[in-house]
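User: quick one, fold this
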Amino acid sequence: MDFEEHVQSSEMVFNGGLVQVERQQVTLPDHSTATREIVHHQPAVAVLMVTAAQKMCLVQQWRSAAKGVTLEIPAGKVEPGETATAAAKRELNEETRLAAARLEPVASFYTSPGFTDEFMTLYVATGLHAVNQALPQDADEFLHLVELDLSTALAQVKSGKLADAKTVMAVWYWQSHPELGVTPHG
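Assistant:
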């Protein structure tokens, strides 16, 4: 079956600092028409940080869209000209003041393909240590670091306290890879 839609016309209806919104008129596979509203967003990164003490580092912050405080893994957009790995390192520094001896990509995904083209890469960071030089934090971010062990994180996913999709995904990834953050003994 052919699922492809064909754009007949498009109009940028909002151009903000973080997102742009495009309205498209499309022809569907059955030749009928529909309207699509697409939120354009730069690529983004998120980082599951696991300490040597087997705790994940989360950022507590206010999220206007959620109308409350959330607990999330560190994340942010990839700036123009920056690689995803460089963005992950920068976000770790800005949000947590930590760097990682090992930073590995584990999955890339659309955050919500029903309305946005935001494409995110999830990294795992281990071998955490303080940064040599702290980068400035975003002026509009007020952050508090929280550490959770795996059983607490899983319980908070189940209870709904951890409700951010990238963070839930990271917790489940950690659950399936419990060796993360464990330093091998030589």
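User: anything notable?
Assistant: The mean pLDDT is 94.
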